[in-house]
Amino acid sequence: MQVGSETGQAGWQDAEVAAASIPDKRLQRRLRRLLEQLSAAPGKPVPAACGDWAATKAAYRFFDNPRVTEHGVLSGHFAATAARSKASEGPILILQDTTEFIYSRESPGKIGFTKTINAGRYKAGQPNTRTLCGVLMHSSLAVTTSGTPLGLAAVKFWTRSKFKGTAAIKRLVNQTRVPIETKESYRWLENLRQSIALMGSPERCVHVGDRESDIYELFCLAQDLGTRFLVRVQTNRLAEPPTEAAPTDAAHRVFAQLAAVPWSGRHQVAIGGEDHEIAFLQIKFASVKTLPPIGKQKRYAPQTLFYIHALEVDPPSDRDPIDWRLVTNLPVDDLAAAIEKLDWYALRWKIEVFHKVMKSGCRAEDAKLQTAERLVKLLALITVVSWRIFWITMSARAQPLAKPETVLTPAEIETLDRIDAARSRPRIMRRTVATYLLQIAMLGGYLARTRDPPPGNMVVWRGLTKLQDIAFGIAIGSTRRCG
């Protein structure tokens, strides 16, 4: 017996599966039921979340059904993300990143491989190189400029039949001359295209990526689709020298032109954990006409892009200094615009936090399914559960005075009210998102001391799990039998 069905929870799950492209009504009901079960027990194995053998067997049949795909499972969530994005104001940041889910299996070939690692040396001295079994996931997370995660706009899962290290490939192939469509990095372009098709407002979207997304083809695709990007630079690309510059070799590189620009000003950012260490950055920016790689100049045209360089002043000795070079096709004409782009890029870490919720909170790497086809469908469901935990946590920070109904279900609010009514000194004095989230976090072990930072995702998912257990107990206690 599960909490959602017994308490009459008007599920948030309905909005996330309403538009799911599942081919059968029975499978649609099973998808709704599985999402309800996994969200009521985040981090627990499938049998524990389902509660009995019949429900567990039904879940396994769902994951094994060839008519069910990971995209079909997530299509309803994608549609809900688009709706939330349209209801929000301002630019939408599409954060892209890749993560790996590592598994240990007796038959790793049924899942695939992610990478090779150096596991030390054998006693005889030979190197011990080990190939890890697992699934890779490339996500595009839509967030507001205040940091509220609206949901996923695109996801790609894949595995490798055999992993080849990039260093070995570079010795054999000039990567700049290989068509992007034949490389794994093509996923960045695929997710960009899928996100734009979903959102329908390319001019509002800003695609944010780390140095792995420094791909000239991505810049050209964004230009063709009428959308924006903000990427951390990895490659010192070819550039067209300014007309007033001397035709030296240095002038033909982006970094040299950016280095010749004077610093425009300073900006301070909060970094670190609870202490919120303040770092001071000096900032410069420049517009540079950037050329495509030599091997691709017949296919792609030059682009005028804006580069921003932020370098930390007097960094502490116990860590590396902040040194960001960013590139964008958004206009950067003054210091305020450069600072705005830096603040947007600083939100990129949120997709890494989202992946951490999947692994540490929902324990996605503890799944016992034996094939990649089954695992990716389970991972798709865990993705939605993890987003909801992240969404509740960040919504309370972005809009603390909003009504609790904006993120919590009536059943969750009612359970928290009943818990509070049973206390000798009630804690809920204001009906706000922040107040109710605090009660959930305290159920998960948050101490709420004066100088404690805001509740994080881990205490929230633990609190939500305990809240579901309490709601289940209340449902049982309210059932009376007459005889």
List keywords for this structure.
alpha+beta; plasmid; RNaseH-like_sf; 16 helices; disordered N terminus; 483 residues; ten-stranded mixed β-sheet
Most strands sheet: 10 strands, mixed
How much β-strand is present in the residues?
A: 15-25%
Radius of gyration: 25 Å
Average pLDDT reading:
87
Estimate the global geometry from the Cα principal axes: globular
Total beta strands = 10
Number of helices: 16
> Strand pairing plus helix content: what structural class?
alpha+beta
Share of residues in helices: 25-40%
**H/E series:** HHHHHHEEEEHHEHEHEEEEHHHHHH
- Stretches where pLDDT is under 50 for at least 5 consecutive residues are 1-10
Task: Tell me the distance between the termini.
Answer: 22 Å
Layout: helices, strands, pairs:
Layout: H1 3-6, H2 13-17, H3 25-40, H4 46-50, H5 53-64, H6 70-87, E1 92-103, E2 113-121, E3 127-144, E4 149-158, H7 166-172, H8 186-199, E5 205-209, H9 216-225, E6 228-232, H10 254-259, E7 265-271, E8 277-290, E9 303-312, E10 323-328, H11 335-346, H12 349-361, H13 372-398, H14 410-421, H15 433-443, H16 457-477
Parallel strand pairs: 1-5, 5-6
Antiparallel strand pairs: 1-3, 2-3, 3-4, 6-10, 7-8, 8-9, 9-10
Helix pairs in contact: 3-13, 6-13, 8-9, 12-13, 13-16, 14-16, 15-16
Keywords: Plasmid
Organism: Methylocystis rosea
Domain Transposase Tn5-like N-terminal: 10-68
